Amino acid sequence: MNGLAANVRNHQRVYDTSNVINISKIHLSQQQLKVISKGLKFVPTPTSINTITTVVNCEKSLFSTSKLIKSAAISEISTFIQKWRKPTKFNMNKEEVKLLKEIKTIEDIVIVQADKGGKIVVMNKNDYFNKIEEKLNDLNVYEQVKKDPTTIIKTEINKKVTKMLNQNKITDQNKYYLTSIDDLPKIRGQPKLHKIDTPMRIVTCSRDTITSPISQFIFRIIKELRTTLNGVVCNTSKFVKIISDVKLNQDEHLASLDIQDLYTNIPVSKAIDITLKRLDESKKLDNLPFTKTDIKELLNLALKNSYFQFNGKFYKQKTGLPMGNTLSPILADIYMDEYQKQHLHEVNIPNKIWRYVDDILIITKMNKPQLEKYVYDLNKIRGTIKFTSEFEQNDQINYLDTMLTKTIINNEIILKVRWFRKDTAADRLLNYESSHGKSIKNNIVKNMTARILETTQDNKDQQEDLNKLRDMLLRSNYPLREIEKLIKQTCQEFKSNKNKNKSNDKNDDTAGQIKDKNNNDFICSLTLPYAPGMEVLKRRLEKKLKIKLFFSYPYKLQSQFNQSLKVPSKSVIYQIPCSCKQTYVGQTKVGIDNRMKQHSKTINDNENNSNSEM
Question: Using CA atoms in the order 249, 251, 254, 257, what is the torsion angle rounded to 10 degrees?
Fold first, then answer.
């Protein structure tokens, strides 16, 4: 029994604040650090249900369903809200709530996630701004723009979308969706604790921003092009299945190539041209109302308007694919697939090369000096794609979250696979005491266990890796009995599924995986802010009405810290009283002023067919 588990069994609660790194000038007490150490995803127990958000989400998600289903769903939700009672148990005591309020009032610090390892970093606000602006001052990648570019972008989008509507290529509903958001992307920083002077990695937040509807619209058209890519790794499970069947020659070695700053170095125009060529070859457009010109113009709108805002200023990413855009991963994959064919002849051999985003694994006859010379020559090729390399050590290399070791069995060289976590990886998961749904916490244990069982092949190694998982879960306040029950259950399910697959002689990607028991067809999905007890509502909606219910968690600690960093959004929920003593609750993503103008126009024009309820 390890020390951590022993303490738990002896009912000795260990408060571990090692996941919080304070590099600010402000001294934080041990008690304050304990509150922060709960994790940025920790959700305090809700004391009320956000009725307005619930109503708006219902209206939006159930818009296209039949009146019968919509009425039944709203009835179920209303009944739940009426019967719901404030919890009697809370996951933060009065002292912790007081400490949280104290932390929120400290204006000179920011509390953010580290770039690697899941650590929480407390740093001076000025340092945070300065380090991000230091990155933005790289004139090869970014430029500051003088004016808010929103109006220009919106005009371009409206022009193209209106043209497609007039050509009967899209519907009015499509047009509304594609022009529905006015917010620009925002950026935030994640400190690189593992590097000297703690530089910042910039993360772009593009969800629900001005070009995201177009990006999602195009993604649905081109996503099938992934099937044209060679050696692209989708996930660890499939990679392990493939790599486990690989046999090496005696003179072959393991190595990896890492593409430096992939997204910002992809030439956008070339990536678009390659995508259009493959789309044309796939005959996908034959069954769609769009021309290649339509797709090209939409791709340009989505990928070349790479503006964002930070600290009251507006910037543009000058080169490469926009960070955070839905389209960037698939465009990068398509471009690199073509790049491999043109420039990586020596290593681009089927079943000898695999790539996950910017990380390439190769099996090569080159020794270490030859590989280094090869990469040196590669980096002299005209263009922006540059590589670094890593060569096997002691017949071993780490790739993604696996450790690969060359092993001789029955006179054949195969690759032994084991679950791998970097030294910088997080040592804890979602805090068990967080007010998340129980199924989420259970699935964390089951999915992590299944990952180890799928990846680590040796039984002794499996037990060691499961013990590492136990330690992570204990640090995250999971009860030991719950951990053991879920791990045992997952192991039994995994073994049962594996035996079934063997007996049925199935050769698919599902061998040994834990199956989803609730794989039903749903007529629509709905997202509501979580409150304790909502699992009952979830079961009723899904079983009775076939409406898939997801939960959102808007009150995580990360949303409560750093209030001064938040940029006002044009996405708001609003309420308008009427002279009939009723109220209208609505949601807009174009700003409240523009939305009021839309309502006024609807009323003045008396549009009987309008979706507006005003």
Answer: -120
Amino acid occupying residue 282? S
Contact 586, 576 (CB under 8 A): yes
% of the chain beyond a pLDDT of 70: 86
List, in sequence order, every residue forming a beta bridge with 126; answer none if it has no partner: none
Q: Is 358 exposed, middle or buried (0-12, 13-18, 19+ CB in 10 A)?
A: middle
pLDDT at 577: 56
- Cα dihedral 193→196→198→204 (10° resolution): -90
Query: What is the domain partition of the chain in residue ranges?
Result: 3-105+423-560, 126-399, 570-605
Answer whether 126's CB lies under 8 Å from 195's CB: no
**Distance in angstroms (rounded) separating the CA atoms of residues 335 and 329:** 10
Give the pairing of strands 307-310 and 253-259: unpaired
- What is the per-residue pLDDT across 544-578, written as a single tens digit (0 to 9) for each? 999 999 999 999 999 999 887 777 665 555 556 55
Interhelix angle 268-282/212-222, rounded to 10 degrees, is: 40
Question: Sorting pLDDT into bands at 50, 70 and 90, what band is 582?
Answer: low
Residue 271 to residue 336: CA distance in whole angstroms: 9
Distance of CA 203 to the CA centre of its chain: 12
pLDDT of residue 604: 57
The CA-CA-CA angle for residues 124, 18, 133, to 5°, reads 25
Q: How far apart are CA 611 and CA 602, in angstroms?
A: 10
Residue 441: CB atoms within 10 A of its CB come to 21
Give the confidence band of 62 by pLDDT, cuts at 50, 70, 90.
confident
Burial class (CB in 10 A: 0-12, 13-18, 19+), 437: middle
Q: Are strands 547-552 and 120-124 parallel, antiparallel or unpaired?
A: unpaired
Token pair, residue 25, equals 């000038």
**pLDDT tops 90 at residue 141:** yes
Mean pLDDT confidence for 386-402: 97
Mean pLDDT of the chain: 89
Give the model's pLDDT for residue 519. 47
**Structural contact between residues 354 and 239, judged by C-beta atoms closer than 8 angstroms:** yes
518 DSSP 8-state letter: T
DSSP string, 58-109: HHHHTTTS-HHHHHHHHHHHHHHHHH----S--SS-HHHHHHHHHHHT-TTE
What gap in Å lies between CA 462 and CA 472, rounded to an integer?
15
Closest-CA residue to 239 (of 361, 107, 157):
361
Copy the structure tokens of residue 543. Answer: 């079983």
Look at 2-6, 317-321, 468-472 and tell me which has the smallest mean pLDDT.
2-6
Kindly report, residue by residue over 201-241, the tens digit of the pLDDT: 999 999 999 999 999 999 999 999 999 999 999 889 999 99
Alpha-carbon gap, residue 523 to 544, rounded angstroms: 12
Structure tokens at 13: 């609660």
